[in-house]
Design brief:
The complex is a heterodimer of chains A (501) and B (288).
Chain A: E1 2-4, E2 12-21, H1 27-36, E3 41-44, H2 59-66, E4 74-75, E5 81-82, H3 105-113, H4 122-136, E6 138-140, H5 148-160, E7 164-166, E8 168-170, H6 196-202, E9 206-209, E10 211-219, E11 222-231, E12 237-251, H7 258-264, E13 279-289, E14 304-306, E15 314-318, H8 323-326, H9 334-341, E16 347-354, E17 361-363, E18 371-373, H10 378-397, E19 402-404, E20 412-413, H11 416-423, E21 435-440, E22 466-468, H12 483-500
Helix pairs in contact in A: 1-6, 1-12, 4-12, 5-10, 10-11
Chain B: H1 3-29, H2 31-42, H3 57-78, H4 87-107, H5 112-137, H6 143-157, H7 173-184, H8 188-207, H9 217-228, H10 233-251, H11 257-260, H12 265-271, H13 277-284
The chains are: A alpha+beta (501), B mainly alpha (288).
């Protein structure tokens, strides 16, 4: 059963075994896994339920339709960093590139040894990873969808001896439409809204869309449900409320919204860590001009990666976008900028992404969007500069004649030597054009209630029935695109809740 | 201008008028008592006492000043937008009062009454100036001037000629941008106006040229480029924001695509090939 909150004409009060807030990589999996075991589940999503039939591939229209705050979300700091998020059924899985990586073994070992998380070593999580990957049909990009932007970069990386690979993606019947970040028009990408959510609904879960959960209801320190308000298509409060009383409450709103909801709800936080430890993946899109046509929009935009420097916190991935999204990050104004855009067919584009050591903070605010602060430290600025320099070096090795770096002091690189010099540079963070992805860590898990918000299974310390099931749980950066790790942990959360019911 | 903002401004200046009237009356009726009261407040905090004077000449001037600011505030409260030109005059009075007291506090006598007046009147001057800025930024009458300035900025960002003929002036990107800002937030148009004014007078402040709108085409392009290459990060962020929104609107236009070699043939072909093909075909008005 799916109920569009915009159409609800009266207050709704229901009971369930489990209520799940958020239908992204965490919430959708918990809801489906429990529904499959015949548990009575209510899933609540703030955004609307759209499918490929609604997705036109037009960037700005789709950003308005699918992105939170029309894409204008981010963290305040020097510099302010945009962090785009999905707000729709499926959450950010609906608008990501479909990249599927397990958190590396050595990251899981660090979580165990340094952060005191139990049961997350690779052999223990492997069955969950396998289960999720099977559900989503994860497989490397096939030849027919692998285009020139990726091939050129692969050639450059091979020439330099840098290890890379085709990216495994969650897709069934991908046509290489090239607009993954704006919703897959053919529903080939196995985002939550075409995989776990409909399967959960088929198993009996109830879904309320366009419902903004204001707080978790508690009694004697125990979570007993949630209270939300329905909104219309223009996000205005309809005046109708949703009150779900449940034996277990799962919060899966993502690392920027989950801690704010817990704080607003007055949930105790003996660790003092809730909202802290915000980690992101700062990234810069690096463009390159080639002598011949690339036509990068005619392929899977994120099809190849260079993981050679992953242990240094650097991950380089394909990231080609339509002209309306590429133009703003290319250097110059006026005729200089037009000259670059006139060669759009010859542009390649990859993203230089880093795992941070810096940490930000999320606090609840009086408005809908929490107060998110983040200051990129000097070592992370150096790391991002190195990542950009490496990306540029690979482009030059592949035959590029110019590289557009996103670094203020040297926006256009013209030789491989300049690219290598950039790898050694120490620019301040404000010199780097960047945005960030994959917020994580703001309700970190761990056995010690003095240093972790939840226990190792995602249960909020000190509560018997309140759970977190999203990237907030990560005690440190997972180093790679996080969706598969979120889903694996969410599957485990569902297991533990099922056992507790 | 939003009606709620009008109401808030009316309330602000009405409150100020009442506060000025009450304060002026207290000074006039109880000049020594007021000073003694303020001395008593400042004494536990370690401030020196203000000397009491029997001379009433300065008091008559002070009361005249209070009458003047009361009338100014009351007049503005009747129509904040129509009488916005009075706001800087009121702010000048308050700033003068604040700065002279601050000067006496630092150079003459560290009494509480000097410090208090410096702080209170200084704050009031800033509030009045902020109200003036808000009125300026939300003034519908500026729309025509803003439209011309927006077109000038966009024309410098994407001029006609160069690598391909089409420029922003050949499109309705200016209107689309204005609509976009208006759709973001009730104060979105004010934000766009602030951005344009920063570019207009940024040329004077940072480049020591005439205002942006009075430069020739090459000068405007150089002025915009100077924002992007500035050493000041906030300047770069401002132009980056403008580029993001303006270029997103310009390069999403199908009539621009041929000039850059892009076409949506690939996208359309894929839209019409998969399981949702019939739906996309109907939307695009073509046979699937």
């Amino acid at each position: 059963m799916t109920v569009d909150g915009a159409t609800v004409a009266h207050d709704v009060h229901e009971v369930a075994d489990v209520v799940v807030v958020g239908s992204g990589a965490g919430g959708a999996v918990v809801a489906r896994e429990l529904a499959a075991r015949k548990r009575d589940v209510v899933l609540i999503e703030e955004g609307a339920f759209h499918t490929g039939k609604d997705f036109t591939g037009e960037p700005r229209r789709m950003i308005d339709l699918l992105y939170r705050n029309r894409g204008l979300t981010g963290a305040l700091g020097r510099p302010t960093i945009p962090i785009p998020l999905g707000r729709c059924v499926g959450g950010t899985t609906t608008i990501n590139s479909g990249t599927c990586y397990r958190a590396p073994d050595w990251v899981l070992d660090e979580w165990t040894e340094r952060h005191g998380v139990a049961g997350v070593r690779e052999p223990e999580l492997r069955p969950y990873f396998e289960r999720v990957e099977h559900e989503l049909n994860v497989r490397p990009v096939p030849d027919e969808l692998y285009g020139q932007n990726s091939r050129l970069f692969e050639r450059g990386a091979a020439a330099l001896g840098y290890a890379g690979a085709r990216i495994p993606r969650n897709e069934r019947g991908c046509l290489g439409t090239g607009v993954c970040a704006f919703g897959c028009p053919q529903d080939a990408k196995q985002a939550m809204h075409v995989s776990y959510v409909p399967r959960g609904l088929a198993d009996g879960a109830r879904l309320y869309t366009r419902c903004r959960v204001g707080r978790v209801l508690t009694s004697d320190g125990k979570a007993i449900g949630v209270l939300g308000r329905f909104v219309d298509a223009a996000e205005r409060d309809t005046g109708r409320e949703l009150r779900i009383l449940a034996r277990h409450v799962v919060v899966a709103c993502g690392a920027l919204l989950t801690p704010a909801l817990l704080e607003r709800s007055g949930v105790p936080d003996p660790s003092g860590q809730r909202g802290r430890n915000l980690h992101i993946h700062p990234a810069t899109r690096v463009g390159a001009l080639f002598p011949d046509e690339v036509r990068g929009w005619e392929e899977v935009p994120q099809a190849y990666n260079v993981h050679h420097f992953l242990r240094d916190g650097i991950f380089i991935q394909g990231q080609f976008v339509p002209p309306a999204m590429e133009a703003p990050v290319l250097p110059g104004v006026g005729r200089e900028h037009k000259a670059i855009m006139a060669r759009y067919t010859r542009l390649g584009s990859f993203g230089a992404l880093i795992s941070d050591e810096s940490a930000g903070r999320v606090r609840a605010s009086r408005g809908r969007w929490p107060h998110v602060t983040y200051r990129l430290g000097a070592s992370d600025a150096r790391r991002l500069s190195r990542a950009i320099g490496l990306t540029a070096e690979i482009f030059f090795a592949a035959g590029a004649t110019e590289v557009y770096s996103g670094v203020h002091s040297r926006p256009v690189l013209r030789s491989i030597d300049e690219a290598r010099a950039l790898q050694q540079a120490t620019p301040p963070a404000t010199e780097l054009e960047m945005m960030a992805f994959h917020p994580q860590g703001t309700a970190r898990m761990g056995e010690d209630a003095k240093s972790a918000v939840t226990d190792s299974t995602g249960r909020v310390h000190g509560t018997g029935s309140l759970w977190v099931a999203d990237a907030s749980l990560f005690p440190s950066s997972c180093k790679v695109n996080p969706q598969i790790t979120i889903m694996a942990l969410a599957t485990r959360v569902a297991d533990v809740i099922d056992a507790a019911l | 201008m939003p009606t709620s903002l009008d109401g808030a401004l009316r309330l602000l200046f009405r409150s100020l008028a009442i506060a000025f009237a009450v304060t002026g009356l207290l000074f006039f009726l109880f000049p020594d008592g007021t000073i003694r009261f303020l001395d008593a407040v400042g004494r536990p905090l370690g401030f020196a006492e203000a000397p009491v004077s029997a001379l009433r000449f300065w008091l008559s001037l002070a009361v005249a000043y209070m009458v003047l600011v009361t009338l100014l505030a009351a007049e503005i409260a009747r129509d904040p937008r129509g009488r916005a030109h009075l706001m800087p005059i009121l702010a000048a009075g308050k700033a003068t009062s604040s700065l002279t007291c601050l000067g006496y506090f630092v150079a003459s006598s560290p009494t509480f009454v000097y410090l208090l007046n410096a702080l209170v009147d200084g704050s009031l001057a800033l509030i009045v100036l902020a109200a003036w800025a808000v009125v300026g930024l939300t003034d519908d009458a500026r729309a025509t001037r803003d439209g011309a300035l927006l077109r000038a900025v966009l024309d410098a960002l994407v001029p006609r000629g160069g690598a391909f003929p089409t420029g922003a002036a050949d499109t309705d990107v200016d209107a689309a941008l204005a609509r976009y800002f208006a759709s973001l937030h009730p104060l979105g148009p004010a934000g766009l106006r602030a951005l344009l004014l920063a570019i207009e007078y940024g040329a004077v402040v940072f480049e020591h040229t005439r205002p942006f709108s009075r430069l020739d085409a090459d000068g405007r392009e150089r002025a915009l480029a100077a924002w992007e290459t500035s050493r000041l990060a906030p300047r770069r962020q401002l132009i980056a924001s403008l580029k993001l929104i303006a270029l997103m609107h310009f390069y999403e236009r199908p009539d621009v695509w041929p000039a850059i070699g892009y076409d949506d043939g690939h996208l359309r072909q894929k839209l019409l090939a998969g399981p949702n093909a019939a739906h996309h075909a109907a939307r695009l008005g073509v046979a699937s």
